[in-house]
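U., I forgot to send this yesterday:
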Amino acid sequence: MLLDTMHLGRSGATAAEIAALDPAMIGYVQLCDAPLEPTNPNYMDEATFDRMIPGEGELPLREYLSIMPRDVVVSLEVPSRTLTKAGISLRDRLERSVKGCTSVAEPPRFHGEEPRNSARLSAPPSGPHG
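Result:
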């Protein structure tokens, strides 16, 4: 089953409700943020062309991610006509997206696990060749 965080949040789904699902049923997660209430009267238009970078909206993304199975595939789903029209470069949009994902994903905790020490997320120290 595909879980889309925009649709989960807008439907009022809670992390507890998602955690009650059989983890084997969750095969894929599309990650984005959004205001809790639609900003566009055409919901499909907003969902297709104007999602928000994780951490920039009101969805409980940390809570959703904290209960996902460890091996679930998570993709970033943030088409943003608003940022494009505002002249934000592709590189800047990508950098904001990576920072946003990092902000909602740390510290990671997966279904059935205790929270991990966030130090484990640090990049390995640079060696003589890095």
